[in-house]
Amino acid sequence: MTEKKLLLCMALIIALIWGSNFPVSKAAIELIGAWPFRFYCNVISVVILLIIVLFFFRKKIVFKDVLLCIPLGVFNLFLVPLLNNISLFYTDAVKASVLIYTMPVFTSLIYIVINRSINIKYAMTAITGVTGVLFFISVDKIGTGELIILISAFCWATGTVLSERTPVKSNVFLRVFYQNCVSLLLIVLTMPFMSDDIQLPLSVISQPRVLLPVLYTGITGGVFVYILWFYMIEKGGAELTSCAILLSPVISVLISLFFLGESVTLNMLIGMLFIIFGLFIAFFGKKSPGR
């Protein structure tokens, strides 16, 4: 299997996981709240990664890499998942899962500023993708939930660019572990200040409607998907990786349709076509000269 085909397979797996996270998480978040949900998911992620690290990578922990991973953990594993979860209080899973994928546009804009040049292929992918997103939400207003998602998309783009440009030498498992630890620490420190009535209802967490989403999101969305994500950034670059997740809203919409009963309109179908076309450009379009 060629590297491009391997990256495409990874992109499809990432799209499946992240595309399913919004609809899977929504019911649990409505029961226990965004902050407790993030706490439980983060605990699951850290425990799994700690077991892996203790068995296989205990002697490879480098303090300098831990420090370098702090800003990555703030953006990638603290702000982005938390903002996504909070947005589900104000908007439906379909719209949230679509708007987050304006991220490639923000990524391209950041690289235009950094490099003072435009990568035509990824710019076209970003434009095509955001056109698809706009078709998805063309009949709806931008409210609180949508604004939170757009902020999350910018944070995600920032974290993606930082992940490529930060000289962390530790392997991908350790990088994901460090960032999950940073996220968990920040959640523990900030949760008491968010609301007076935030609790960690252990009786509720045992319910299947909460426990299963926590396990699924903690394992796939906090561990497995980020291992693939950082590997893709390392091998394919931040711009290709950011464009690769454009298929996620298509998957998320289909899951929301079948499991949450949310409607799919003609605009959404047109948006899917634009998004899939953008993904095709990212992986099979010719490279821009000089890049």
From TrEMBL:
Residues 8-136, 144-283 form the EamA domain. The chain crosses the membrane at residues 37-57, 66-90, 96-114, 121-139, 145-164, 176-194, 214-233, 240-260, 266-285. Belongs to the drug/metabolite transporter (DMT) superfamily. 10 TMS drug/metabolite exporter (DME) (TC 2.A.7.3) family. This is Threonine/homoserine exporter RhtA. Its main location: membrane. GO terms for cellular component: plasma membrane. The keyword Secreted does not apply. Keywords: Cell membrane, Membrane, Transmembrane, Transmembrane helix. It holds the Pfam family EamA. The keyword Nucleus does not apply. It is found in: Cell membrane. It comes from the Bacteria. It is a multi-pass membrane protein.
